[in-house]
Amino acid sequence: MSASPTVSPAAAATFRRCWADLEPVGREADGTYRRLAWTQEDLTLRAWFRAELATRALVEHVDRAGNIWGWWGDPDADGPGIATGSHLDSVPGGGAYDGPLGVVAALAAVDELRAQGFTPHRPIAVVCFSDEEGGRFGIACVGSRVLTGALEPARALALTDDAGTALSQALEDARVQGDDSAPAPEACGPDRQALGRVARFVEVHVEQGLSQEASGDPLAVGTAIWPHGRWRVTINGTGNHAGTTALEDRDDPVIGLAEFVLAVRRSARQHEARATVGRVLVEPGGTNVIASRATAWLDIRAVRTESIEAVLADLAFAEPVRESWTAGVDFDDAVVTDLATATHQLGLDAPRLGTGAGHDAGILSQAGIPSAMIFVRNPTGISHAVGEGAREEDCLAAVAVLARALAQWSSARAAR
Ligand code: GLV
Ligand code: MN
Ligand code: MN
Q1: pLDDT along the chain (416 residues), means of 10
Q2: Quick one: 183 and 258 in the same domain?
Q3: Cα 126 to ligand 2 centre (Å)
Q4: Are residues 252 and 383 both part of a single domain?
């Protein structure tokens, strides 16, 4: 199709300036990002986001799960409204775009609408969800899950990081460090009022694969999220000396771990699933020590739940313990259609794309909020790692489409 749509100089300047602001926060020497939930880096990003809301006079509401919403218009008087945004935390070793692109695109879309002289009939919100990646406490989308009631607050607060710090303690620490958007643990929980303000949700996100690069499409509309679960496997052994213990006398759990990892790959291939062991813990962890225990965390996703069940059946010998489960999501047809229409109106094709990645849009969708996503082409296809990226013109095309869709929904009499 034709050249990418673009935005006003003001919105483009917002995009560039926000990106420059965020670029150094949590960046490691190798170019990856470490912005784990409720760490100093995350607190810096949350403070940055709140300042962005304030400079735009967006009215801040922090919900009981610590997600930060900035409203243009009054959702309690004129709502429910339309929300857009994403998250600012990262996985360990993450890329720059997963999360921040959706937050920056949302801020730039507000600036684009203002540059156009638009006044919302229905309120519009920009949102930053807390602890989306689960990179510190192990469960993804904690902010949106607690908000919607999909995760019991007591269970969330008891999650611990690798240093043994509980989420409840991390929230207390954040508050002591001056982040009053961190919920007090006793106040943390589902928030019907905050959810009730939202009639629609759109999340802009970098594509986490190569489909759009292959098809030449700067944008795509996200239609579905695959079902996804995380499990933990513990293999016990007997600690002993690496030099003096004969091979036949060893009870080495790392051998079991290796066999488990290979079984995961074999089974995933056979059942057309994506299964990953991306985190292991070998204890006590000495080079000259036969380990006494190995723990592996297993992530399985597939188009069909049955494929995941088949992989789990193959791995039953290792007795995986489930840590989280997210059912598959089909995004709202009307929201998908409206986003595709806005994309076409701006001169681009709007291929429809399902994804194996998890998102807050999926959690909101499961809570009954009509939602969908806009994916931005990723030249490398890499995500959760250093190569993750997007061209600026594609990001600005997403801002243009988002602004157009927000304007159309916000102008309509009934948002639901
Ligand atoms: C989050 O990005 C996930 O898909 O795990
Ligand atoms: Mn993300
Ligand atoms: Mn991610």
Answers
A1: 82 98 98 98 98 98 98 97 98 98 98 97 98 96 98 98 97 98 98 98 98 98 97 98 98 98 98 97 98 98 98 98 96 98 98 97 98 98 97 98 98 63
A2: no
A3: 15
A4: no
Instruction: From 326, 360, 383, give the residue that closes a domain.
Output: 326
- Around ligand 1, the residues with Cβ closer than 6 Å are 133, 140, 357-358
Question: In this structure, are 88 and 172 located in the same domain?
Answer: yes
In ligand 1, the atom with minimum distance to the C-alpha of 133 is: 1
**Ligand 1 atom index nearest CA of 384:** 2
Check which CATH number belongs to the domain holding 160 and give it.
Answer: 3.40.630.10
What is the CATH classification number for the domain harbouring 270? 3.30.70.360
To test the pocket of ligand 1, the residue of 35, 36, 98, 133 to mutate (highest count of ligand atoms within 8 Å of its CB) is 133
> What is the domain extent for residue 240?
230-326
The span from the CA of 402 to the CA of 398, in Å, is 6
Closest protein CA for atom 1 of ligand 1: 358
Peptide bond into 351 cis (omega under 30): no
The H helix count followed by the E strand count for the chain is 14, 15
CA of 360 to the centre of ligand 2 (A): 8
- The closest of 398, 349, 345, 351 to 374, measured between CA atoms, is 398
Looking at the structure, tell me whether residues 71 and 173 fall in a common domain.
yes
